[in-house]
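Bug report (template v2)

What were you trying to do?
Predict the complex of my protein with magnesium ion.

What happened?
Run completed; filing so the output is reviewed.

Input:
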Amino acid sequence: MSLAVEAEGLKKKFGDHQALRGVDLEVPTGTVLGVLGPNGAGKTTTVRILTTLLEPDEGRARVAGYDVALQAHQVRSRIGLAGQSTAVDARLTGRENLRLVGRLYRLGRRESCARAEELLTQFDLLDAADRPTGTYSGGMRRRLDLAASLMVRPPVLFLDEPTTGLDITSRLLLWGMVREQVAAGTTVLLTTQYLEEADHLADRIVIIDSGQVIAEGTPEELKRKVGRDRLEVVVADPGRVMEARSALVRAGGDEPVTGADGRTVLVTLPDGVAAIGEAAAALAEADMELTSFVVRQPSLDDVFLALTGAQVTTDGSAA
Ligand SMILES: Nc1ncnc2c1ncn2[C@@H]1O[C@H](COP(=O)(O)OP(=O)(O)O)[C@@H](O)[C@H]1O
Ligand SMILES: [Mg+2]
């Protein structure tokens, strides 16, 4: 397994503030790592170090096989970066912006133009290509920014909160575009405050909080860490809700609770599929008519809450 990104013990202090306290991470080539954390966790600082824009106080990192401190030039020619604040010039049109990026990367006039057209088409920006980007919507600007980061077909792509502040339609569109890059073999390190985004896009996730990695694993592993499956049943007759609860306790469920609607029963099950079968059997034996029987896995929200005591809501704000 070759690593496209490897960082060891990254530390960074701004004034008195220790923004990174020793961050380690690895991204195997061809995979997506989601770096998940609330505002101020140190995500952008990490990305800036890995993209040679900032020197760490301590630690080392290699990207695409090159040391970010000693071989910054080699690193830069192999990465793309789409940041939180878009890098495009608002006075130039979308097409001009892309061509400019191509020239900056010494692509040559012809190739810059050809690649710009390709990306404008791929990112659904052809209709807007001749408008100054200052007139673009937030979603269009992010798409253009992502397109700009792909002008030179970098093998390693860094996306720093690519969808923060976007509506769900634009977000889904961008997710699709990121997936296309991954399918084409690009390695991606993506930071996000959205649990859902990490869950959808990432092969592995590291959760960072206050400049430290506090957990890592696949989305599934992280969810399993915090808890067991929960069963949610809705009884047809609200008058029999207590009976349903007793049946579930007999099946080994922990502390069933009744939902506010008076007919939903929630219960935590012991591990494994067998427990689900036993719960179903106990309800059938009690001749319980149900309108719904659903098993829910813990969400990444549960993971985050369990690890940090803070809740990250799906709109990305830490509470
Ligand atoms: N250039 C800087 N000068 C001073 N403090 C900074 C600077 N950049 C980041 N910080 C601080 O470092 C911490 C981590 O910031 P950042 O990496 O931007 O977090 P995130 O991207 O996860 O929101 C924050 O407390 C932030 O205020
Ligand atoms: Mg940031």
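What did the reviewer find?
The two ends are 39 Å apart (CA to CA). The domain at 228-297 is CATH 3.30.70.100 (Alpha-Beta Plaits).
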